[in-house]
Structures are given as structure tokens and as C-alpha cells.
Design brief:
The protein is 45% helix and 19% strand. The chain folds into three domains: 5-73, TATA-Binding Protein; 90-245, Ribonuclease H-like superfamily/Ribonuclease H (Nucleotidyltransferase, domain 5); 252-298. The protein contains eleven helices and ten strands. 36% of the residues are buried. Strand 9, helix 7 (201-210) and strand 10 form a beta-alpha-beta unit.
Amino acid sequence: MGNPFVTTLDITLADKLKEELVKQNFEISSPPHTLFSGKKKGMSCTLYASGKLVVQGKESAEFIEFYLEPHLLQTFTQTHPLAEVKQSSRIGIDESGKGDFFGPLCIAGVYVKEDQFALIQSIGVKDSKTISDKNIRIIAAKIKNICLYQIVRINPPKYNEIYANFLNLNKLLAWGHATTIEKLVEKSGCREVILDQFASEWVVLNALKRKNIQLDLTQRHRGEEDLSVAAASILARDAFLEGLEKLSLEAEITLPKGGASATVQIGKKILAEQGLEKLLSLCKHHFKNLDAILEKTRK
């Protein structure tokens, strides 16, 4: 990093910062007009009595990105600087849970006004896949305080019922996207929509046509690069995590994310201890994981 990173720190956080610097092997000193200064090879961190904080040096990027911003400042202006290009108001749409055996499918829409893009970027909005579960919950709450949004959460029983009608995941996703778009268009009046493309364009267009919705619709791969879609991806992920947590409490066992072998092991445990009906109420039936869980019982 060529230029120093300069910000203002709440003085009540000074001790917490100092403890972290000591933990990371900084040499602490107290130059004039400062509360303290920490130095180690490649970087320095100085907190002035006024609350001004200056971090500089070629090794400072990692310290700022992985400690200072997410844990102390809880803003992301340095690692994700504000966009300079003026953005037009639009609705972003994304989903979470389609690759998870347990838990709901969640589709979220976020309406971002043109004067809100810089603000949502400053709170850390980016592709949800790059954010920890803990920070997803924090950033999602902030998005909800700033923007209009709509979330459609389809829990396993309803998901399996709908899937039985469509017999196709992309058609189910398109129905979920169209439903979310319809509700958010009603709330916001905005008809400019962008979503992460998950199938051929006509799949979503047909679903929207059936709902008689006319839009300026953009579908693109890596849609999360757009801030409105990134915000939607965070709300969808947050809704999925919340839904999975509720189902885990209901099942009295921690349900794993994803579709790896751990889901089969937990599934077999639920089947053995709580029965088939309980298992079927927690998972997506068309996944091959269910066949693996039921393999021996079918022989």
C-alpha cells in the first residue's frame, strides 16, 4: 500500500487495538501527541490523542483487511473503496441454499436507490461467498436498515412440493425469482432488475411472463459483481443461515451446510433416531444424498 490509511477511531477502542498490536508482535511506544504507536517490519500503526489513526507500510494491507476493518472499525472503505461511477436505482436478485441438502432455498431482492450504492458499499457489501457467516449476519442487518427488500424462504416441505410440480430445479428457481421480483416491484415501483444468471434467459422470462410483469431485466454471469445483486446475495445467505439454524434446533442436531459426506452421516443419524418422516421434513428430496442415506433401508 503506497498511501497511508487514515481514519478516526473511537477512543474507547484504544485498549482493544493496543492489545491486538501486542499480540501481533508490534513494538509499542508513546511519541508526543499520541496515545501509542506500534511498529514492526513493513508497517506502523499510530493512534493520536485526537482519535486519528494512521496505518502505513507495504505490509499493512492484510492487517487492515482482516483485522482493523472487520473487527474494530466494522467498515470496509479501504479494502472496498466507494464506487466513483454513478449508479442507477435498481433491484438486485440472488438466491442461497440451492446446493444445500438440508435447509431452505432462499431468494432475496434488494432495491438500491442511486444515492445508496456508496453507503451499502461502505458497510461491506460484496459477494456473500467471500464473507464469513458471522459478518453475513451483521451486514444483512445493516442492509435491511438502509434498503427496501423482499425475501422468499422456501422450507423443505414446501420446496419438495413445488419441485414435484416442476421436476426441474431451474424452473423452481425461476418461479422463486419471479415471485421475489413481483413483490419488490410492487413495493418499490422500480422495474430495472438485475440477477445472477443460473439458466437460459428464457427460463426466468417465461416465469415473469406468467405473472404478467414487464421489466427491464438483465441476467448475467457473476452477477454478484453488481452491488445490488451482492446485497441480495447477503440477505439470501442470511435467510438461509437463519432457516438452517431453526431446523437444527427443531431436529436437536446441527445440520451441516452443503451436500458433502457430512450430510449423509447426519442424515443417517436422524433416520435412525427420529425416523423417516423427520428426515424428509429437513431436506431436499431430489438430492442424491437422500438415496445414500436410505440405501440400506431399501434393500
